[in-house]
Every structure is written in C-alpha cells, then in structure tokens.
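To whoever is on call:

I kicked off a structure prediction for a single chain this morning and the downstream step that reads the tokens threw a length-mismatch warning. I double-checked the sequence; it's 105 residues and nothing unusual in it as far as I can see. Pasting both halves so you can look.
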Amino acid sequence: MLRIMEIDGYVYSQSQLRALVDGVQHVERGVSDVGSQYKTTMGDIRVAIGSDEYGEAYWKSRSERLAAIDAGLALLKQALGDQEVRLTTANAGYRAGEDASTVRS
C-alpha cells in the first residue's frame, strides 16, 4: 500500500519525503560551504588589496554589494535549515503514523 502525506498542498510518498529531506540537507551543506569560502575569500582579498587609498576605495565602492551577498547566503542557509526541520518533523510524524497503523502480532 502506497502511503502519502500532504505538506503545503503538495502530496508526497514517504520515499519522496525522505529524498526531499536528504536533498535539502545536501543543499544546506553546500550553501554553508559557499558562505564559509566567501568569508575566507573576502578576508584574503582584503589583505591582498591592503588599506591604502586604492584598497579603501575598492571596499567603499563594493561594500554594499558584498554585504548583500553575505546576507543573502545567510538568509538562504537559514531558510534551508527551517525547511529541513519542517521536513524532518513531517517525516518523523509520517513514520510514527505508519507505525501506529501497523497491526502487530
């Protein structure tokens, strides 16, 4: 018997839900890695450019854009984390409901 669950108007089988949880976790790890690499790279660039007039002008002209990129990565990571929690909770509820409906001898 194929069991299904509805979340936010979408219908999933248990295997699809598990795959979705795994996919969200994978993307979240990737975004986290990109965020870490971004911060490291920005620090390296800052050191390489220096703090002379050119370096200060470079950062001043790009500071809003670089801050927006950093904030965007943080927001994406947070959104993925929130979805992971929701999907993991739904998957656990799915399993508990399936276990409760199973007749045991």
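Update from on-call: the warning came from a stale cache, not from the record. Cleared it. Sanity check on the structure: The two ends are 19 Å apart (CA to CA).
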